Amino acid sequence: MPESLLKGRRILIVEDEYFLADELNGLLQEVGAEMLGPVACVENGLRILSGGQVPDAASLDVNLGGETVYPLADALIARAVPFVFTTGYDRAAIPPAYAHIRRLEKPIEPEMVLRELEKLLRD
Fold first, then answer.
1. What is the pLDDT of residues 25-72, one digit of tens each?
2. Which of 24, 33, 39, 42 has the fewest CB within 10 Å, making it most exposed?
């Protein structure tokens, strides 16, 4: 099995579904990545960034209990941190400003998120 591109990388997980966040944590540990979070709200994600912990990549759930993740997405874009959206929404529901962001449609398997994060780091 080849070594993961995630090994030694810091990955921010913004997800309000506990079981998905927990599974992602386990998989990231298995491949040797450091998970920042998980956080379930924009404020806590911004707190991580303002605390100096800049991730190498991130996975952002678009809807966090009725709050959209776009302010955090903007902060990541400003820092040139690649990320993927995970969402139950179709592409039309995502604002045009984020059309270039990769999107995984829920329900998703945690392994899909890791593969997408590896693609982001490869590109």
1. 999 999 999 999 999 999 999 999 999 889 999 999 999 999 999 999
2. 42
The long-range contacts involving 80-83, CB below 8 angstroms and separated by at least 24 positions, are: 81/12, 81/54, 81/55, 81/56, 81/57, 82/57, 82/58, 82/120, 82/121, 82/123, 83/12, 83/57, 83/58, 83/59, 83/120
- Residues 24, 38: contact at Cβ < 8 Å? yes
CATH topology assigned to domain 10-114? Rossmann fold (3.40.50)
Domain range list for the chain: 10-114
